[in-house]
Amino acid sequence: MRILLLCLLLALAQASRADLAVARVNGVEIGVVRLEGYFNEYLQAQGRALTSIRNPTLYKRLRDQALDELIDKELLWQEAQRQGITVSDDQVSAQVGQFEAAFGSPAVFERRLGEAGFDRASFADYTRHEMAAQQVYARLSQVEEPSSGEIAAFYQAHRQKLQGQQNQSDNASVIAEQGLAMARDALVAQLQAQARHAVRQRLRQSATVERAD
After folding, report:
1. 28 - beta bridge partners?
2. Predicted model pTM
3. Rounded to whole angstroms, what are the CA distances from 193 to 23, 135, 141, 148, 189?
4. Could you tell me if residue 208 is left (phi over 0), alpha (psi between -120 and 50 degrees) or otherwise beta?
5. How far is Cα 141 from Cα 194, in angstroms, rounded to an integer?
6. Is 37:15 a contact under the CB 8 Å cutoff?
7. Which of 5, 20, 83, 163 is 20 to 30 A (C-alpha) from 49?
């Protein structure tokens, strides 16, 4: 978490400087320096190292995926603004406090903020921005609890796979109960993934997104 946060801070600081735009989202620029900083964070989240990517095609594909995520983040922030979503000072303070704790020392945290071109106030503003975007994402991608019939149908369709993941038991009722519980969790996860994809698609379709060649 500490390494990822540092990369985030450095990327954001660099993004505030004048640089070439790699994309515009409803007129808001995403600069190449911001993308490169986020790309490093994106790779680390996948357990990859930039120096290990030697295939130009793979490098371009991963970089494009990172840019897609940045575009989605900007769209979510803009949607949060349209919906009037607000994040309280207490919520922001709590989140910033978690970041600070990850560095193990207030002095180290302050130094890292300064190196990245932030003070506490400006970093709090960014944190508020991110939290609001996540709130609108969660709100827009909510799904209804599946019915017992839907869960049972999902279990039957994926029975072999789900049974392979179950704990061993000689009790048939326990096996069935475990299977349905796992089916419910898997179905909800699938529905949520579909809803999140639909949200991103809808925001893209209603936006003007321009990507540089």
Report:
1. 25
2. 0.74
3. 25, 16, 8, 20, 6
4. beta
5. 9
6. yes
7. 20
> Which tokens in the block code for residue 120?
């506490």
Of the candidates 4, 5, 7, 6, the one whose C-alpha atom is nearest the C-alpha of residue 36 is 7
What are 168-201's pLDDT values in tens digits? 555 556 667 888 888 999 999 999 999 999 999 9
Q: Residue 21's beta-bridge partner residues? A: 31
- Closest C-alpha to 135, from 74, 198, 79, 205: 79
pLDDT (tens digit per residue) in 91-131: 999 999 998 999 888 889 888 777 655 788 888 987 898 89
Find the mean pLDDT for residues 11-35: 75
**52 pLDDT band (50/70/90 cuts)?**
confident
**Residue 167, class by beta-carbon neighbours within 10 Å (0-12 exposed, 13-18 middle, 19+ buried)?**
exposed
Cβ count within 10 A of residue 91: 15
Backbone angle region of 146, left / alpha / beta, with phi > 0 → left and psi within -120 to 50 → alpha: beta
pLDDT in tens, 133-170: 999 999 999 999 999 999 999 988 888 787 766 655 55
In the β-sheet with 28-31, what is the strand arrangement from edge to edge?
28-31, 21-25, 209-211
DSSP 50: G
